[in-house]
């Protein structure tokens, strides 16, 4: 498993625009079915990742709710990054 961080501002395209995620996917030659995106913004991170076929881990620190008519659901939701290590171990086992 490889963890890579990218910053949208360096690409000149804002999240959740799918082009940003596709640029990263193409440059890193990622398989969308095996790619997980971790983010704390439902709209920018979960929607962006799911719209290009990636899995999404939502760090929902503020216990926010997903909009009722949303097309996208995170694959996993955690409260803080302290839960992330255990979740990653669980994902690797499966």
UniProtKB/TrEMBL annotation:
Keywords: Hydrolase, Magnesium, Metal-binding. It is an enzyme of class 3 (hydrolase). Its cofactor is Mg(2+). GO terms for biological process: small molecule metabolic process. This is HAD family hydrolase. The keyword Metal-binding applies. SUPFAM superfamilies: HAD-like. GO terms for molecular function: metal ion binding; phosphatase activity. Its EC number is 3.1.3.-. The keyword Magnesium applies. It holds the Pfam family Hydrolase_like.
